[in-house]
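subagent[fold] <- orchestrator: predict structure for attached chain, return tokens only, no commentary.
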Amino acid sequence: MRFLITAGPTKEYIDSVRFISNASSGKTGHALAATAIKKGHEVTLISSSDLQPPIGADFIGVESAAEMFKVVKENFPKCDCLIMTAAVADYTPVKKSKTKIKKSKSDLILELKPTADILAWAGKQKHEQPAFALRASSGRRATGNQQRIVVGFALEDKNLRKNAEKKLKEKKLDLIIANSPDAIAAEKSAVEIKTPNGKWQKIAKADKTIIAEKIIALIEQLQNKS
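subagent[fold] -> orchestrator:
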């Protein structure tokens, strides 16, 4: 299979030196990329993380949500599966100052606008274009009726399953991985996973490489059923 994986936070610049971001480390996305490569798949990794990309990945570095969306759109037609682990900013400044904003005694008000919803876009697009040819590792080729697999993550601090299931349905995903803020930048995490018609599967707290192995295995099962 050909995987397209996003990882890390995005940086939405306020001025020439300051930006809005979040605490995502990119560890899960990089672990997924490394696991997929280890299992013989091809990987394009789109990341804003400072982590070293795994050997064998086709790495594309980005910073902003807009940059990530542009690169995803360019590479989506060539993938069999998109995994959106990146913590993409929900908002970006309406206007970026070209120079550093000087400190003053007055309050500073920032006007923000929503960023593009990359995951929702991918969920709609998966039906419209035939999937790219499956690689030699699968021994098969995709047909025009075979759609891409789109996987999303849901970080929730309350109503985890309810909110994740809503995201799964509304964005037309094939798999949702839900976790809590405790997973941010941690070496280990616990996740809950669901397909549209399946039951919730809970994976107890484990190293992110182990979580990645279970997720890639589930994606392979979905691919084999298609």
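orchestrator: received. Logging for downstream: The chain has five helices and twelve strands. Helices lie at 27-38, 65-75, 118-125, 160-170, 208-225.
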